[in-house]
Amino acid sequence: MKGRNRALITLKKPMTDTLQKIRDLQFSDKPTAEALLITFLRQNTPFDVLHVELTPKAISLNSFNGFMTLRDNTRYFFKTHTESNTVIDEYYNAELLANAGYPIIQPIYKSTEPGKQILIYEVIPDKSVFDIAWDIENGDDTHFAALTEAQHKADDDLLFLYRRTHRIKKYEQVDSSPIHQLFYHRLVGGRLDNFYGALSGDKHKFFHLPHGQVSTAEVRRVRWVINGQVYHETLNHIILRAIDQLRPKDNQQETIIGHGDAHNGNVFFRADEHSLLYFDPAFAGEHHPLLDLTKPLFHNVFAMWMYFPQEMQTKTQISLEIKDDTWYVNYVYPLHPVRQMFLESKINRVLAPYLAANYTKDDWRIFLKSALFCCPFLTMNLADNERFPPEISLLGLAMSIEMGAESHEKRSLIDKILDDVELPKTS
Q: pTM for this structure?
């Protein structure tokens, strides 16, 4: 299996839920997870695997990765995304991205079983943008200037690729796009109910919050005032609108060719070249440009509490006061300059100029906010008290409201940003 020009091997056949077990065990029982993985690889791939090493990372919320060594001492990198309740039949369109002009690492092997996929790559020595950014946030700004340069160039290139691949497609050509698994199908395909119960909530499922346990049913019907921002809608209102907005509609759809899940954990930083390199195209395809932007807009900017909940608990001030059916939340969660850089680069270099070209419909804002809502609310279970301290669960709920609903009286950060995009500046 040596050499860079070998043919790509593809496997597609029924599998067990072994990969999901490995994902769940990687943090709590790494030796057992590695034993399961090496057995799986030996049974289901053509590689003569001698040893595997999982590298659990905070970014690995629905995935795992690491290295495997063959008996001839060849070493490879592997990555998988294990999506429960999947309804999409085709993943990993790396060739589509490469042909469109994206700088992307091509895997040497892929399994495409929905929900239980794995990609195997030749080893890349570079660190992910996620790791570089977290180093910067924790005081090592060695690569800050170079990363900023690379991000700006990558976003300029992304806008060019959006414009070049922009198409209007019929509904039946895009309703099965893999990216819908991250948004619409998480709302209606089982994940929402598994996390929080049916639409009315569940009296037997609970959020563990600073003032105690509260049923998901109660949390989903209260109203919110967050940092002085008044919200007229409940979580259930936001969920219903998101389902309506994100459902692949029975009409023509605006599409681009995009990665679909281009958060920083799926991008390498080439320090020597000051450039970015994509990998793990699990949700690549032809889909709406705003869906393509959603994951990097939220996860690269606002989501460190999701990846480092215990550490961020010690850094985050948050309080809750309840009056009748309204929850008053106040929190302090300043964005580090590297997070501001990611946000401003995506907004100013991709979203704003794309919208200025009149490619999107007038309801782009509602659509984008519905997608953004899914990131804090459905990537992980905010009611999981083993993962999230009460303060962080409350922060996640507050950010879900801010992302999904419009603020009144005082504008939220995300609404201020979208206001500036929507309203042309005068000189």
A: 0.88
